[in-house]
Design goal:
The protein is mostly helical. The protein has two domains: 6-82, no CATH class; 95-144. Helix content is 55%, strand content 9%. It has six helices and six strands, in the order αββααββαββαα. It has helices spanning 6-13, 32-39, 43-51, 68-74, 94-143, 151-155; strands spanning 21-22, 28-29, 58-60, 63-65, 84-85, 91-92. The strands form three sheets. The protein has a two-stranded antiparallel sheet. A two-stranded antiparallel ribbon has the order 3-4. A two-stranded antiparallel sheet has the order 5-6. A hairpin with a 5-residue loop joins strand 1 and strand 2. Helix 2 crosses helix 3 (43-51). The radius of gyration is 35 Å and the shape is rod-shaped. Mean pLDDT is 75; it is low at 1-20 and 80-91.
Length: 157
């Protein structure tokens, strides 16, 4: 973890908190917001990782300075989900939209699978009820058997 002195803090004091900053050694550092966007997490998630001691960062004038290598150590498999900019500089939402469409397709497939499983379970339940009714009818017929006994069965009783 890199420590800054007061002279170094004055360099970063004028920087906007949502921009990537650099320390006196010339290394680029992420702020909390850029780090969150870079790894596709929320600011509270990054802040919690810092407070829990999982992610090391330095706070200069109220702005966290996070080393990119430290960020990738803590969140290694997380792809960045940054908004893409058009040549005119306008931010497009194509990446989040594509992700939403992908999630929607996955959820629709899951719903269809669950509906099919539910239909199968209903069919099994209906068959089990039918079998139980048939067995009940057989048992009741045996219990209520009032046929007259034959002559020989009465004689050798």
């Amino acid at each position: 973890m890199t420590q800054f002195c007061l002279a170094d803090a004055s360099i970063t004091a004028s920087l906007t908190p949502n921009l990537t900053t650099s320390n006196p050694k010339g290394l680029h550092m992420f702020t909390l917001g850029t780090a969150a966007r870079h790894v596709g997490k929320s600011k509270p998630t990054i802040s919690k990782a810092i407070k829990d001691g999982k992610l090391s960062a330095t706070k200069v004038n109220g702005v966290y300075q996070i080393d990119p290598s430290e960020l990738s150590r803590v969140f290694p498999d997380t792809p960045p989900t940054e908004a893409h900019t058009s040549p005119q500089g306008a931010i497009s939402t194509s990446a989040p939209l594509a992700l939403s469409e992908q999630r929607n397709a996955h959820l629709e497939a899951t719903v269809e699978d669950l509906k099919a499983r539910l239909d199968d379970m209903k069919a099994e339940r209906d068959q089990a009820l039918q079998d139980a009714r048939e067995d009940r009818n057989k048992v009741m017929a045996l219990l209520e058997d009032q046929r007259p006994k034959s002559f020989w069965s009465r004689m050798f009783k």
